[in-house]
Amino acid sequence: MPTTTGVNHTPKMHTSINIEIISDFACPWCLVGKRRLENAIAQRPLLDISVKWRPFQLNPDMPRQGRNRREYYSDKFGVERAKSLRESLLAVGADEGIVFGDEPNAIAPNTLSAHVLMYWAHNGETVDTNSLAEKLFVAHHVGCENIGDIDVLARIAGEVGMNAIHLRSMLEAGDDEEAVKRQIRQSSANGISGVPFFILNGEYGVSGAQPAETFVSGFDQIQTSDK
């Protein structure tokens, strides 16, 4: 899959672009990438852009109850490296209008249930999936909530118009978890090993939380090829 390259072209015609975002809601850089994509979309208001969220788990072996986030990152990266990464993230977040929270009892979650919730949202006709993604990201990264907790997920589901009571029972039963795991395995089989990863019109790949200009270049490249 080719990655985008710079093309100096301002869109003047109506073009449809479908974007698949492979991400993990526990990944802070996925939130950064979301903000940068939104910036790019705002720069091309004449384009007809639709977004679909695809699941990925950076740590599928995370216990379903999660782990203390500070301890998890210290174990994963080492204390000094975790501190350095945190400082870098805070600086990038400030540039994108994100205030990353760091409560001592914050949980690094297992995100499978959160991805199942998004899977159901895409199957509904009235759910704003981008709003759901935003709420999941912000709940975890800004509000330091455990988005592996069914109570938290049911509340967020209700906030975007989903049936919280019904979905709570489905989450507790583990409905559609295997379907979501299959999607995750498919992404891995397609060579995606890190997130965020963006696929534009099934043809152009953008790996990582790239600057908005990279997405704009991709949009323009697609429009040029459509002529």
Overview of this protein structure:
The chain is globular, with a radius of gyration of 18 Å. α1 (28-43) links the parallel β1 (16-23) and β2. The model is unreliable at 2-12 (pLDDT under 50). The strands form 2 sheets. Strands 2-1-5-6 form a 4-stranded mixed β-sheet. Strands 3-4 form a two-stranded antiparallel sheet. It is 51% helix and 12% strand. It has a single domain, classed as Glutaredoxin (3-Layer(aba) Sandwich), CATH 3.40.30.10. It is of the alpha+beta class and 227 residues long. It contains 9 helices and 6 strands; from the N terminus they run βαββααβαααααββα.
Topology:
Elements: E1 16-23, H1 28-43, E2 48-55, E3 67-68, H2 69-77, H3 79-95, E4 107-108, H4 112-123, H5 129-141, H6 150-159, H7 164-173, H8 177-189, E5 197-200, E6 204-207, H9 212-226
Index terms:
227 residues, alpha+beta, Glutaredoxin, 4-stranded mixed β-sheet, two-stranded antiparallel ribbon, globular, disordered N terminus
**N-to-C series of helices and strands:** EHEEHHEHHHHHEEH
Q: Provide the low-confidence segments as ranges.
A: 2-12
CA-to-CA gap between the ends? 21 Å
Cα radius of gyration in angstroms: 18 Å
The number of helical elements comes to 9
- Looking at the structure, the CATH topology is Glutaredoxin
